[in-house]
Amino acid sequence: MSLDVMALRAQFPILSQQVDGKPLVYLDNAATTQKPQVVIDALVDFYTNCNANVHRGAHHLSDEATRRYELARDRVAQFINANRREEVIWTSGTTESINIVANGLVQKLGTGDEVMVTEMEHHANLVTWQQACKRSGALLKVVPIHDNGELDLAAFDSLLSPRTRLVAFPHVSNALGTVNPIRQLTAKAKAVGAWVLVDGAQGIAHGDVDVQEIGCDFYAFSGHKIFAPTGIGALWGKFAVLDEWPVWQTGGEMIADVEYLSSTWGQLPNRLEAGTPHIAGAIGLGVAVQWFGQLNSADVQSHEQALLASAMEQAQCFDGIRLIGTAAKKVGVMSFLLEGSHPADVGFILDRQGVAIRTGDNCAQPLMKRLGIPGTARASFSIYNTLEEVDRLFDALRKAKMMLA
Ligand SMILES: Cc1ncc(COP(=O)(O)O)c(C=O)c1O
């Protein structure tokens, strides 16, 4: 079996449009993925037929909205193999999920405690811990990477200590495409008694995420990276850990009993979800994971690897391309520099030819500094991309090279 890519593409209306008279080649999937019709329909249907607030109203619309909203939680819980549905906390995305954990951690840490991150972090998984350490007096340690973009596992081992309270790392690097050995890293961190947070922003759409098998305490991800709307995501956490994690926002829905001078908190998941949530977004995320989950994950991965292999091969034969991130285990992300030109200029010329890529620091300034580069051009692939589109990327790059020479 293999993916029927043309049938998949047909489900994404945005992909049939033209840019400057040229068919769109969308290769910015690590920034955000496009949405299949089934997700768009779920949003339209929600607002057309059952818009109401959840958990509150004693009326039909509210009941139906609540049913769809909680069904979405079940679908996400099943998709990541959560042990309990209450372990799935709706957030606005990975950034908010990480911030919830960091806000709680500040109350648990003090001088002498340590937090570990890696050199390949997105700002969301670096600045958040950096600030949490500043607020708590803990020490932030940064695990180095090798020049090819793989994590230095020996350094990881030597930086871990009994003082390490939390270790945070990306499942997959957004800038380099590196897939980290998250089970191995988690096991090592758990052996010293640390909490483990996996930044799953780039991992969620690239393979089977089984949070119980990974063994981490927290897995954070965004809906928009997995064919769902923006503004919705989830923090998954082990029930026992989340249940005693300090609340972060206070207000409606998260309380048990309120007096003028004191309050008590409700049960999970509500205690970490204050206020009216992004109901339509959550429903859209539930539909997206169900839709994506029905695809054969081996087919998904082999298609993505075929796209990556074609891109990396063509890049290696292309005089003037320097690849950034050549780890042995990568997802469909190719970061590169075109010799003698700025990534922004490359991106601009590609855009004129209908090819959409990301350029810049990839929200990873310290990583760019570590690699001694100002930023990269980045093509990132998804299930609906084709080998012909990879060829179009390289046609466009040849043109860019000529124009920028
Ligand atoms: C590795 C990684 N972490 C965190 C984030 C932040 O995700 P969001 O902006 O959806 O909160 C991103 C977004 O690109 C990412 O790639």
Automatic annotation (TrEMBL):
The keyword Disulfide bond does not apply. Its cofactor is pyridoxal 5'-phosphate. GO terms for biological process: cysteine metabolic process. Keywords: Pyridoxal phosphate, Transferase. It catalyses: (sulfur carrier)-H + L-cysteine = (sulfur carrier)-SH + L-alanine. Residues 25-393 form the Aminotransferase class V domain. Its EC number is 2.8.1.7. It is an enzyme of class 2 (transferase). It comes from the Bacteria. GO terms for molecular function: cysteine desulfurase activity; pyridoxal phosphate binding. Pfam families: Aminotran_5 (PF00266). InterPro entries: Aminotrans_V_dom, Aminotrans_V_PyrdxlP_BS, Cys_dSase_SufS, PyrdxlP-dep_Trfase, PyrdxlP-dep_Trfase_major, PyrdxlP-dep_Trfase_small. PANTHER family: CYSTEINE DESULFURASE (PTHR43586), CYSTEINE DESULFURASE 1, CHLOROPLASTIC (PTHR43586:SF8). Catalyzes the removal of elemental sulfur and selenium atoms from L-cysteine, L-cystine, L-selenocysteine, and L-selenocystine to produce L-alanine. Belongs to the class-V pyridoxal-phosphate-dependent aminotransferase family. Csd subfamily. This is Cysteine desulfurase. It comes from Alteromonas aestuariivivens.
